[in-house]
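Internal tracking record. Fields below are filled automatically when a chain is submitted to the structure queue. Please do not edit lines marked as system-generated. If the sequence contains nonstandard residues, flag them in the REMARKS field before resubmitting.
Queue: standard
Priority: normal
Entity type: single polypeptide chain
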Amino acid sequence: MKRILFFIILFIPLSFAVTEIQVDFSSGISLEKEQYFSEINSVVADLFLFPREEFGQEVLSLKTGGKQGLDEINYKWDVPKQNVLAYSYTSVVRTNHDLRKVFSKINYPYPKLSGSIEYFTQPSEHIDSQYETIKDLAQKIREQETDSWKIVNKIGLWVKGSVKYNLSTLTEDVVQRASWVLQNKYGVCDEITTLFIALVRSLGIPARFVHGVAQTDGNGLFGSHGWAEVYFPNHGWVPFDVTFGQFGWIDETHVRLMHTLDPGDPGVKVEWRGKNVEAKLGKLALNAKFLRHDKEEHALLDYSISPQFSLVKHGGYNLIIVSIKNPQSFYVTESFTLSSVKELDILGLQEQWAILAPGEETRLFYIIKIIDNLPEKFQYTVPIVVTSGRDQLKKSIFKITPSGVAENLRSIENTIILLRQENLKQYSSQVLLFCTPKQELLFENDVPEIECTLENKGNLILNNVEVCAINKCSEIDISPKNKITVILKLNLQHPGRQDVLVTANNDLISKNSMVSLEKYDDTILEIEEVSFPEKIVSETSLKLKLVQKSYSSPAKVSLIVRTPKRKIISEIKEFLYEQELEVSIKPEDFAYGKNDLKIELDYKTLLGEDKNDLKILSVERGAGGFLKSLLLNIQEFFTKVWEVIWQ
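SYSTEM-GENERATED OUTPUT FOLLOWS
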């Protein structure tokens, strides 16, 4: 019995997400007859625009007054009496998140293809892929790439980044040619897809146009939509919705209705028999709505984000490094977007893309600048958020402080160049570089050391290899099948966490390793702002702002407020860099006249040393009128006398 139970559990589906979409189509045929004599014997309409059973798409029902065939729905009217012939269908379709998996490299150019597939490499009316400007551009985007998946995706990314979505009168109802789109750089989904297909076909790669419906906003609104499918040998037709940024997949809101060579190919064909009669097609109306929608999330890539510097000076630069790995057994193309923050300017593209083969790794780089008009008397904690195209979200932070790193733009750009060089020297794949800090904790007077091991797994001698970090270098030679350890002593001036780039370079190799170092300084916590009236006549609040002036965080923080008559202690269990506090103070806490209000901040440093900060305010206790003041003074006099007697 246990074995049977285990067998059943093993085959339970991992996802129960279900999306069902109702698609409604309607149109009409107008019969325009001559005034005196006309005759109509029959009208036949073949409709090609309807949902079919496909990968990721299941037709649950299709209700129509016509006769359904494999590729068309046939409507027929014999001797019709009415002047407008209506035809329609209602279909319910179950869709899935359609991810087509390409598992291995498909070399470009393709081998000889079958006639039915090669048909989709030829130019057509709107996809004029024969134009030299389109051919030249496709070759320029391709460069020397021989991986077909990467070629197609690079073309898709170029089109997405270069053609602006614009619902103008020129493109709303009429499809423009690919050559027109290339010249004008705008259009809607049909134009964007048309140019993409033209560039792909110009390289001899089969691509076809898909007519369908898809969700066009986050509120469940559907509309007619066009996207592409590209053929990959041994893998079939793979969807590419360049408009929506879905490369190699389409989400579950897409419903396919027809595949064509050209976006202008008709969705319906009408024939009629009669005299002095003309049949004219009415507008095709397509509507869709969710019957059920379980949104599917498919996180495919592993990634992490890291600011190069944890503390940055006002007006300085920082580098955000996104390290990405594809753990899947198939290719994945995905976007990564750095969220805007009001204190920062993002230099370059906010959205970047990674095209990764199975097991491949890469890095994306965002250069950010601290805005110039940020008040320097304050310190800031800046959130860094990077979101993937499949809604994965990663967070990090860094701080803006007068004691931070003042890195310039050129230095940041040089770091990026060094990190990218590794892919340009082929022998780099035969070398391993692994670096770690020798000390876990660094303090102000410590000299940080990095220990690096360089291993030559290949068969070539590597001479004059420079291993460098922060302008400290050591030159070594490495024989084949050997490894060498190098220790670099660095001059790390600023406190905080810093990602140090270690490079190993010569004519044959370029290897990089990032090492995180963290240097602690003397802990400083101060009472920065104090708000309290000089004269107190009623209960009021003492308002304080405590600010951490160092990188190192304080521990066991206590705020002690002393009046002549009371001691108020507030324990702060976890201090958060900047913290505002309020302490309630009563007039009875003071004697009449001038008083000292003492505010003391006690805390421990990272090394366990006791430190404090002290502020003293002069406060006058008022009475509120001569008679009231006199009575209170008499009351206070007898209170003191009574205390002396009892002592």
